[in-house]
């Protein structure tokens, strides 16, 4: 991998114009969300849920990338690990607070709000327990689909994320100071258990928060489908963040090489295919078995503009990125990768609309509902960006004393030079 | 049989990967076209040093894959919906969903056939003999020596100038290989 032009004098990218962007997003999004709340309080709940699931995607994606970094004992991803660790840390720093309105909306009929619950099954349970007792699909999913189950899952998830995402980040930061091998071993320990925690919590989250909007449905592929889309979108985000930081941060410029970008690009490509594979398999199995308790979920998504959203997902979420990333050099071409990042965010948004939209809008989403979705999303993205930037500024931009760092930079360090190698430097 | 053997090219021997890599950079910058490097193991950065572009094999696999997918879809449509229609499970006679998995398998099959055939075609393989195999020391390319060969068909080839150029890259042993 050549490094042409890297010997030129480094002029950091001037980002001062964008300094207030997170705050602006938060304020504009917040105002929009408040107007939405006043105009259409029912829609606000679903819009907030959509934005929340987007935030979960981003934070869990970062958590996942940190986990697999340790599980594979990877060296190439050391320079980007801090980006992922801070993303993962927001699973406990930010997500629990963003969940509060969802908890309130889920319990709406029971706490005196003149609104139905966000989740039809919860609404039935709270307002008409007799009917809920006869709802076979609901009874079959006891004790998960109860009020205690719903909040128990949320509490479990946030506690687990606190323990594991925090453990990974804290030991990584500690290694910046001590450089001790113990930190790496601890991170491996957290990662080896954490991958199971990740799988269980993501599955529970995807089922209880999003799939439960149509609780009669069954699909064992669903959490994997949400996972594939989430990591895909997160990878595109990490690519862009790394590309900006390389131009803005002198320290990161030294460690973020072509190799890092090429590998993230390859992972984006892999997850493009993985998402399509999982999405198609889910559809194909249900299509083939042809059982009404499963097919209804897709039947309602062929009505109104959900048909168009579905087509957009097939061609926009898969074919377009697949074909544009097929060439090796595309993964290193910023004019391809930057629009792809924007596109990945739009496609993940469309994916969530496709999943959440039909519950409040059986005949298709409206301009108003999308506007409120975007307002909630802008608020949350602004908040996430703010917290992420604060965390990022407070610490070294990459794990400066990670023992795998030199290897990740393709440097050979002779045993006699270890004391002065990257990762071991004072 | 009695005709004088034509020269195939000039071969230069090197002792270290670094030497042959710097030599390759020099030959690349001199604008030679028909030349190659032979080493006992892959050397990182050699593609750049030789100025090699990305291989064209990908295009063969792409065409193979597209052919396989189309073939699968058309075959299933023809067999199930046109030639011998059978209703199975109340499904349509032809649906892209049911036809997808076999078509996908054919995509992979013909894609890999394309890759292998394309690789053989671009390498001009298989072939029974190569002039370099006549060169006694060339077998060391699988042992501990590094070779750079410039063919006489190269437009920039000149018996004296090319040898001088190779000498300037530090090769201790430069010989002519005959056809």
Written description of the protein model:
The complex is a heterodimer of chains A (426) and B (179). Chain A is built from 17 helices and no strands. Chain A has 426 residues and is mainly alpha-helical. In chain A, helix 2 runs antiparallel to helix 3 and helix 8 (147-178) runs antiparallel to helix 9. Mean pLDDT of chain A is 91; it is low at 1-6. Chain B has 179 residues and is α+β, with helices and mostly antiparallel strands. Chain B has 2 domains: 7-53 and 130-178, Alpha-Beta Plaits (2-Layer Sandwich), CATH 3.30.70; 57-123, no CATH class. Chain B has helices at residues 17-29, 46-50, 57-83, 96-123, 159-168, and strands spanning 7-14, 35-38, 146-151, 173-178. Chain B has a 4-stranded antiparallel β-sheet with strand order 2-3-1-4. In chain B, helix 3 (57-83) runs antiparallel to helix 4 (96-123). At the A-B interface, helix 12 of A face helix 4 of B.
Features:
A: 426 residues, mainly alpha, 72% helix, B: alpha+beta, Alpha-Beta Plaits, 2 domains, 5 helices, 4 strands, elongated
Structural class of chain B: alpha+beta
User: Could you tell me the strand content of chain B as a percent range?
Assistant: 5-15%
SSE class of chain A: mainly alpha
Anisotropy-based shape of chain A: globular
Helix-strand string of chain A:
HHHHHHHHHHHHHHHHH
- Strand arrangement, major sheet of chain B: 2-3-1-4
CATH topology of the largest domain in chain B: Alpha-Beta Plaits
Estimate the mean pLDDT confidence of chain B: 91
Give the largest interface pair and sizes. Answer: A-B, 12 and 13 residues
> Given the C-alpha coordinates, what overall shape of chain B results?
elongated
